[in-house]
Amino acid sequence: MTEPASPAPTRIILVRHGQSVTNAGGRAADQVSNPLTELGRAQSREFAERLDCKPTLFVTSSFLRAQQTSEPLRQRFPDVPVEEWPIHEFSFLRPELHRGTSEADREPHVVAYWQREDPAFIDGPEAESFTLFLDRARETIRRLATRDAGGCIILFTHGFFMQAIRLVLLFPDATDAELMANFQRFHYVNLIQNIDSLEFEVRDGKIQLVGPAHQTDFTLQGAKSHV
Prior knowledge:
The chain is globular. The longest helix is centred in the middle third of the chain and has 16 residues, at 130-145. It starts with 9 loop residues before the first strand and ends in an 18-residue tail after the last strand. By secondary structure, it is of the alpha/beta class. The chain has helices at residues 38-50, 64-76, 103-116, 130-145, 159-170, 176-189, and strands at 10-16, 57-60, 82-84, 152-157, 197-203, 206-209. The protein has a six-stranded mixed β-sheet with strand order 3-2-4-1-5-6. The protein contains six helices and six strands; from the N terminus they run βαβαβααβααββ.
C-alpha cells in the first residue's frame, strides 16, 4: 500500500527592511517612524521583482521602514492577506531620551546597555528587556510552526529580530543570559545587511533554517550548539 505523501513544507522568508534614514547616518524622530531612503525604496522594489515564490501571507512589523519595504511586493500581489505581528526591532533604549538622534549619537548608550549583560534590565518606559525581546522571537517561531502546511510566508522585519530568531533556533537550550552575552558577536560575524533575507521551512510542526546564508560556524561561550 502506498504511503500517503507528506504535507508540503511551509516556506518562510524573513526580510530585513531597506536602507532607512538612520542607517544612512541621518536622524529620525523615533524608532517607529524612521522611514526608508530613496535607496531603501529602490532596494525594496528590486526584492519584489526577484522573489521566486507566490506568497500566501505577508507579515509586517509596526515600524514604518518595514511597512514601506513591503509595499512593492504587496503591489505585485495585491490579493495576498497582510497581518501585523510584533516582529519590530529590539527597542532596548528609553525612547524619550533618544528621539531625533542618529546611530552615532546613540552609540555610547548602546555600548553601556550591552556591557550590563542583564537580560532582565529595562532602560525605562517603552523600552524592553532582552528577555522580552527573545519572548517575541519565540512566539513568532511558535506562530509560524503552527500555520497550515504549505505556502510561502514573507515577513518584513529587522536585523536584530532576525538574529534573535536564528539564535533561538540554533541554541534552543541556552539561557537568556548566554544568548545576550553572545548576541553582538553572533550579529557581527553573521551580519544581515539591508534587504537581506533568511529562509526557513516548517515541516511537521518544526521550523528550521534552509541553506547556509549568512551563517558561519558559531559556538556560544558557555553553551553547546544544538544544530
